[in-house]
């Protein structure tokens, strides 16, 4: 069996530790994602989905437990090392597109590649290819404000995949879209994931959407359980 | 100080974007460089404008004085009241260079603080994700 793209073990996270308002969000959460696998993470609001995704994506540090990306244990890694792995191996998509408003769709997709040291021409060629694969190559020159919600989210997917990461983490990626657009965006996401063979963890409230993924996990009482 | 206040406003306005850049994998140093370039550019433009205006004023102080006096109907500078009959303005290369060095040096130094404050910010929180 190939090496897991992402492995979380024994993840603990408590906010406001030692205070009366202490919230123990994650209690030994664990999961493993294999390359090419699309996994749904289903949980009600406030269950700790975003915290788990932030920890998995090296945006937050757990109180205990280990995060391995591509077999590399990131426990105790420096901010610089975490930033490098985040840039190369992790792609994020959120409920709101979070595109940079002053940049065109093409520039937004090229940006993570430029941060990785790719030349402008090569970065823009890859960006154009990705935008083409989700059917919005003709919108490459438009700024986010001139794009529809579905187009913005597709650009966000392309940006997340720009550096060909091992892991895609998505937090309610279609939560802000109407059902028809949500369907189109989800189909575009699945096409991209299948083409690239990365591992995707997609947090969603939408059970119908979750049913279309390879595997479903639930976050209950701070732990991850198979659905 | 205007560079500092301008940069602090820029940092506040761009907080979300900075979070996005950090999430994308830009290092603290890369974010700091963006603010440094922005602040240093402002300082450079300000210094250049200041040097040009200052030199022009120093060279043409008498005609400028006369023009202001003419436009305001005279009496802007009444020598009988102050006992100073001539406004001394002598252009010295050393003065210009030290003023340029001080201005650029200060603008570069003050640029670092707001940028560093933001560059060190945790990526996830900054993006309010």
From TrEMBL, chain A:
GO terms for cellular component: plasma membrane. PROSITE patterns: ABC_TRANSPORTER_1 (PS00211), ABC_TRANSPORTER_2 (PS50893). Belongs to the ABC transporter superfamily. One of its GO terms (molecular function) is transmembrane transporter activity. InterPro entries: AAA+_ATPase (IPR003593), ABC_transporter-like_ATP-bd (IPR003439), ABC_transporter-like_CS (IPR017871), ABC_transpr_LolD-like (IPR015854), MacB-like_ATP-bd (IPR017911), P-loop_NTPase (IPR027417). It comes from the Bacteria. This is ABC transporter ATP-binding protein. Keywords: ATP-binding, Nucleotide-binding, Transport. GO terms for biological process: lipoprotein localization to outer membrane; protein localization to outer membrane.
